[in-house]
Design brief:
The chain has 379 residues and is of the alpha+beta class. The protein has 2 domains: 3-193 and 299-375, no CATH class; 197-293, Elongation Factor Tu (Ef-tu), domain 3 (Beta Barrel), CATH 2.40.30. The chain is built from 8 helices and 27 strands. The strands form 4 sheets. The protein has a 7-stranded mixed β-sheet with strand order 8-7-13-9-10-25-26, covered by helices on one side. Helix 1 packs parallel to helix 2 and helix 6 (296-307) runs parallel beside helix 8 (333-339). The two termini are 13 Å apart.
Length: 379
């Protein structure tokens, strides 16, 4: 197999590093084209030594990594405990880059990779420090400059500002982002499970101002939501009481809307005097929206349905740090579901402070989602 993943829960970083290196060497050998490292916060102080050992022993063509509050390896998820997972691929040469973003008079500038270098790139795996790298703005910049580029990844989550680390070719950084640039040979498919199910029907926004939605289908947005609540079964009303989300149709040219056609954003406020609701994303008049709810059952159903008919040789998983035990009440949920559709347990991942992936043909920063880079064997 051209892919392998390793996991160690040993509390000593030196021992854990040796264990994952041994597993990768046995499975795939030296000099893989790419290795991806995820370590939990307990090992943050040893990341430089861990990265140096991996660089020296494996001598990978490209190497990226990040620290996180929890990680996934194979069908396991390790939350808030010492752990390391290492993923390796032999699927053709790729480039790893350290990215930073700067605001200039002409707008955002992406530093670390030239625009010409992205012309032949079809996909990017991006691991970013949330305090120093404006991911949403970078995704918008890439959407304009490179509209066909698929971006999958997540935000490091091991600590507060200055406490996260990203790794690029063995060098450890406390700012910016680590990215690997993929071409068509790497055969990556992106899947984003936003963990919600729709309620009611898709409707058109008839009055709005930025994030403030005043009318939906000619009725005040709050009245529309109240009517939906009154008509819902008791179980759905109980879930709605914990929070309602708004699904925004990404591609208005579609005639019918299905799971995956909506960008899910939270309803962050209401104005009872005007009957308006405030979305976590600007909404234009004429947009199609549908209310959604999120709970463990909906999140499980959403991920499983998106994986129907899917098959891969390996995967990288970027799941929200609000999922895992917090959402499902049991360990390993996302890793187990995803591991069932890939071969050889070649899965690694991390719990993120925000997940990156496409909805429709556009890349977005998400919350409470599971974003997956699913790999087929190379041509």
């Amino acid at each position: 197999m051209p892919f392998a993943a390793a996991l160690s829960e040993h509390p000593l970083a030196t021992q854990a590093t040796g264990e994952v290196l041994g597993q990768i060497l046995e499975a795939i050998g030296e000099e893989p084209d790419l290795v991806v490292l995820f370590v939990t916060g307990a090992h943050t102080g040893a990341v430089e030594d861990i990265a140096a050992a991996i660089q020296t022993v494996l001598r990978p063509g490209a190497f990226i990594g990040a620290t996180a509050v929890g990680i996934a390896g194979g069908d396991r998820e390790i939350e808030s405990q010492p752990a390391i997972t290492l993923w390796a691929a032999r699927f053709g040469a790729v480039d790893a880059v350290h990215l930073q973003a700067a605001r200039t008079a002409d707008g955002l500038a992406l530093l670390g990779v030239g625009p010409d270098a992205l012309e032949a790139v079809t996909a990017m795996v991006l691991l970013a420090d949330p305090a120093s790298f404006p991911v949403a703005e970078v995704l918008e910049h890439l959407r304009v400059q490179h509209p066909s580029l698929v971006v999958v990844g997540g935000l490091a989550s091991s600590g507060f500002a200055g406490q996260n680390r990203v790794v690029v070719d063995g060098a450890v950084h406390d700012r910016g982002a680590a990215a690997v640039l993929l071409g068509p040979r790497q055969r990556m498919t992106a899947i984003v499970s936003q963990g919600c199910r729709p309620i009611g029907s898709p409707l058109v926004v008839t009055r709005a101002d930025g994030n403030l939605i005043q009318e939906i289908a000619g009725q005040s947005a709050l009245e529309r939501l109240g009517g939906l609540y009154a008509a819902a079964p008791a179980e759905t009303r109980e879930i709605m009481g914990r929070g309602v989300h708004l699904g925004l149709v990404v591609d208005e040219h579609r005639l019918d809307y299905e799971r995956g056609d909506f960008l899910i954003r939270p309803i962050v406020g209401t104005d009872r005097d005007s009957g308006a609701i405030m979305s976590g994303e600007p909404v234009a008049v004429g947009s199609t929206v549908q209310f959604h709810v999120r709970d463990a059952l909906s999140a499980d159903e959403d991920l499983r349905e998106l994986l129907i008919g899917r098959h891969g040789a390996a995967a990288l998983l970027f799941t929200c740090n609000g999922r895992g035990m917090r959402l499902f009440g049991e360990p390993d949920h996302d890793a187990e579901v995803l591991d069932a559709v890939i071969e050889g347990h070649a899965l690694s991942g991390m719990f993120c402070a925000g997940e990156i992936g496409p909805v429709g043909a556009q890349n977005f920063l998400h919350g409470f989602s599971a974003s997956v880079a699913l790999f087929d064997e190379p041509d």
